[in-house]
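Changelog entry: the UPF0178 protein BGC07_14715 record was regenerated in this release. Current contents:
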Amino acid sequence: MKIWVDADACPKVIKEILFRAANRLRIELILVANQSLATPPSPYITSIQVAKGFDIADNYIVEQAKPSDLVITADIPLAAEIVDKGAHALNPRGELYDKENIKERLNIRDAMDELRGSGLISGGPAAFSQKDRQNFSNALDRFLAKAKRSI
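Regenerated structure tokens:
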């Protein structure tokens, strides 16, 4: 099992949680971004820089991820591709996407895009909070514990 991170927009605090988990559990963690990323020295943590461009990092993650892998992303279309591939996706706020909820999330995302495009609403998600950080940490721990039991 590997953990892939859609790292361009991933909050720093989430990366730090992932760094600790990778080292503690000896799980390969791969951050994918279209810019250079600083990572702590570790045999379990790598950073891959892809070319700049729309969905280049997302496409790389989809190509590389295997069904046992976990992808950390706030990008719902990327999460949908990962779930369709049989892998797992977790957003930085702690929501685990699966076959039961990903279609609904895509529909909500598309509806919100339409509302923003028509000017009926503005803005994006709420600021990242301490509760979001805790929710992510708890969801990651639950996922990794379950994955470890199934190995």
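The chain has a mean pLDDT of 90.
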